[in-house]
Amino acid sequence: MDADRSLIARLDELARRCERSGRPTYTRFLDPAQVEKAVWSAGRAGVRVQAFGGYEDAERAVCRFFLDEMDAPEWPIGCLYARWDARYASISHRDVLGALMGLGIARETIGDIVVREGQVFLFALREVADYIVANLDKAGRATLRFQCAQELPEIPPAAGRLFRDTVASLRLDAVLAAAYRLSRADAAAVIREGKVRVNFIEEMRPDAPLGADALLSVRGLGRVRLKAVEGPTRKGRIAIALFRYE
């Protein structure tokens, strides 16, 4: 709770500083739940806010408080990338994040880490980019040589599987059961055990309503996004599209 109050105070101060000076101010990287808090801070200060993580659909983002969009400078975000021979080593998001933490890099200076077959894209604040390039040379069993991209790149789509199902309602337990092939009772039990997050926030209410684009994660089972709500079926159920991340 103290960390939450500290974050809100910091966001409020950035928003008020923008309102007083008329110049844009920037947060560090925030997760989606923290971005919502930045939106509230902007409203309290009477300024505007944008969120950007370096590429479309980024989960972690920097927020910019501003008055006039035309006066906003570039985002303080850089993209680092590296390749390795996937025939001899494999690495995961956790490997790269662990290597960064081992260098003493603060988590809030790092955005998304996107690992694809044989390549990794790392979004970071420019203030730490050169340090990462100079010092991060290995993650897991893969040797890496990072470079700074001259422009923010297009990121290859995430690996996973799109599938469709029908649910009785858009309650969390119903969608979770469809997403992870659980019974409705088992889905409700997992939720009550505190193992489920919706858009990065712990959710313990089986009847919590969901909307399109909600990101679900279950401890030990991975992540699923509710890509679309496609409408009622002839049998009175609701057709949905889900994307299961690998």
Give a topology summary.
Layout lengths: L1 H20 L3 E6 L1 H14 L2 E5 L8 E6 L10 E7 L9 H10 L7 E7 L2 E7 H10 L2 E2 L2 E2 L3 E2 L11 E8 L4 H9 L3 H9 L3 E3 L2 E2 L12 E4 L3 E11 L5 E8 L1
Antiparallel strand pairs: 1-3, 2-3, 4-6, 4-9, 5-6, 7-8, 10-15, 11-12, 11-13, 13-14, 14-15
Helix pairs in contact: 1-2, 5-6
What does this structure look like?
The chain folds into 3 domains: 2-71, 2-Layer Sandwich (Ribosomal Protein S8, Chain: A, domain 1); 77-148, Alpha-Beta Plaits (2-Layer Sandwich); 160-245, Roll (Structural Genomics Hypothetical 15.5 Kd Protein In mrcA-pckA Intergenic Region, Chain A), CATH 3.10.290.10. It contains 6 helices and 15 strands. The chain has helices spanning 2-21, 32-45, 93-102, 126-135, 172-180, 184-192; strands at residues 25-30, 48-52, 61-66, 77-83, 110-116, 119-125, 138-139, 142-143, 147-148, 160-167, 196-198, 201-202, 215-218, 222-232, 238-245. It has a 6-stranded antiparallel sheet. 31% of the residues are buried.
How are helices and strands ordered from N to C? HEHEEEHEEHEEEEHHEEEEE
Q: Report how far apart the termini are.
A: 33 Å
Total strands = 15
CATH topology of the largest domain: Structural Genomics Hypothetical 15.5 Kd Protein In mrcA-pckA Intergenic Region, Chain A
What is the correct CATH architecture of the largest domain? Roll
Domain count: 3
Figure out the total of helices.
6
Structural class: alpha+beta
Main sheet attributes: strand count, strand direction, barrel closure: 6 strands, antiparallel
**Which stretches of 5+ consecutive residues score pLDDT under 50?**
none
- Please, what is the CATH homologous superfamily of the largest domain? RNA-binding S4 domain
What overall form do the CA principal axes indicate? Answer: globular
User: Mean pLDDT across all residues, rounded?
Assistant: 90
Strand content: 25-35%
Radius of gyration, taken over Cα atoms and rounded to an integer in Å: 20 Å
